[in-house]
Amino acid sequence: MKRIRTAARPAKALAAVASLALLAGCAGSVGGDGSGSGDSAGEGFAYDASQDEIDKALADLDPVTIKFQPSAMSEKSILAPNGLDVKKAIEERSGGKITVDIVWGQAIAGYDAVDDALADGRVDLAFTLPSYTPAEYPAFDAIGTAMSTLPSSPVASDLAANAAGVQAAWETPEVLEEFEKKNLVPLIPMLAAGGYSTMCSKPMTSLDDWKGKQVRVGSAAAGKQVTDLGATPVSLSFPETYEALQRGTVDCDLGQLAPNVEAGTFEVAPNIGVASDAGIARSAGAITAGKKYSELPVAYQQVIFDSMSTTFSTMMEVVIGAKAQAVEQAKDNDGSVQPFDDDVQKQMAKYAKTLSDKTAEKASIPDAPKTLGTAGTEWAKSVSELGYDDKGDFASLDEWYPEDASYDKLGDELFEKVMAEHRPE
Fold first, then answer.
1. Over the range 256-275, which residues count as b (16 or more CB within 10 Å of their CB) and which as e?
2. Residue 29 has pLDDT above 80, yes or no
3. What number is the average pLDDT over the span 400-414?
4. How far is residue 42's CA from residue 169's CA, in Å, rounded to a whole number?
């Protein structure tokens, strides 16, 4: 059963939006001053320009190659479309004048070093994980932590939460300043991907089930939530998790389902626990650019920035499609997919709010949870209006989730409503 696209698809059709028909984007843009090679270095094009118009704007510019480090380990990875689709979008929109060299598996710089690699030019565009270093990204971490307070469902809530995260990050100056201090350019300043679930060797749905369990976590915030529920958080690298579950060193993994589908986790931990209301703080990422991007002609910056609509919708297709595969694999391994009991959910929701408020206060942005919550409500409405409602429960996701699911319309709407005003000029 195919649930995730593994090949690049055509670049997004660009919406003809009158408000975007500005020759150099809009105020509040990202990127540099447009300096670079060619006489037309400072000239841009409208977001809804025809390909002929784009080709004309790029005609006098020298071809360039950019190194892109996405989240996937290889071209065969379940996450590969996150790299392949963006490559295709950029190369097609640039008329082949920008070549995207994909670097798989964080081969140039791991997540702990990718910021420096972007800043010094070893990598030009990358998926990064600011949530791994909350001390360096406290405002970013505050919004990521606040995501645990948003509603949880297999499809609609994840779409709304991710769109809300993008909006809240752009609307929080402190988040943008954190990237600026590292000489990075945020293209999508927050990409939260999929909600978190537990994957356990035995079902763990009641509060008593949590007591004394060893749970592998990927962030400090998630560790605090696990501790509050009576379990012991274990810091363990993801590649070590399968063997730890197999040997019984840990009882569960707490994280996104997509990488666990690829890792075969459900062979040893086939019991999935899911939130039905508030959830677990996410280890959110971002798409950021570095030194070379800031030095590119503005038209090239626009080509790359415009591909972020593709980046967002492809990520959603990958992570939500992976949920359906995870449910299928859990069932194939005689596992279960169950929501957490009410007592767990209530305690989880209560602590999520407490942790969210404390994290925001510590980051000196006390309004962050409210900013995210307001955006979440707005995007929940948009998601529903676009027809992306849940058609069933999590346990039957493999039965009702469409194989050809596309979130292009949501990506386009997010770009128009939120990202367009940050387009390079």
1. bbbbbbbbebbebbbbbbbb
2. no
3. 95
4. 28
Give CA separation, 45 vs 61, 88, 227, in Å: 14, 20, 52
> Within 13 Å, how many C-alpha atoms sit on residue 222's CB side?
25
Amino acid at 128: T
Nearest to 303 by CA among 29, 13, 47: 47
Q: Which two tokens stand for residue 110?
A: 């791991």
Lowest mean pLDDT among 16-20, 298-302, 417-421: 16-20
Angle, vertex CA 31, rays to CA 25 and CA 33, nearest 5:
85
- Whether the model clears a pTM of 0.90, i.e. scores above it, the answer is no
pLDDT, mean of residues 37-41: 39
Mean pLDDT (whole number) for 209-221: 92
- The amino acid that residue 345 corresponds to is Q
pLDDT at 61: 96
Show the 3-state SS of the chain: CCCCCCCCCCCCCCCCCHHHCCECECCCCCCCCCCCCCCCCCCCCCCCCCHHHHHHHHCCCCCEEEEEECCCCCCCCCCCHHHHHHHHHHHHHCCCCEEEEECHHHCCCCCCCHHHHHHHCCCCEEEECHHHCCCCCHHHHHHHHHHHHCCCCCCHHHHHHHHHHHHHHHCCHHHHHHHHHCCCEEEEEEECCCCCEEEECCCCCCHHHHCCCEEEECCHHHHHHHHHCCCEEEECCHHHHHHHHHHCCCCEEEECCHHHHHHCHHHCCCEEEECCCCCCCCCCEEEEECHHHHHCCHHHHHHHHHCHHHHHHHHHHHHHHHHHHHHHHHHHCCCEEEECCHHHHHHHHHHHHHHHHHHHHHCCCCCHHHHHHHHHHHHHHHHHHCCCCCCCCHHHHHHHCCCCCCCHHHHHHHHHHHHHHHCCC
Nearest to 166 by CA among 129, 127, 192, 130: 192
- CA gap 183, 186 in Å, rounded: 10
Bridge partners of 274?
339
Strand order in the sheet with 64-69: 98-102, 64-69, 125-128, 285-289, 185-191
pLDDT given at position 42: 57
Q: Is 235 left (phi over 0), alpha (psi -120 to 50) or beta?
A: beta
If we measure between CA atoms, which residue out of 421, 322, 373, 309 comes closest to residue 145? 373
Among the listed ranges 37-51, 82-96, 126-140, which one has the minimum average pLDDT value?
37-51
User: Is pLDDT at 39 greater than 50 in this prediction?
Assistant: no
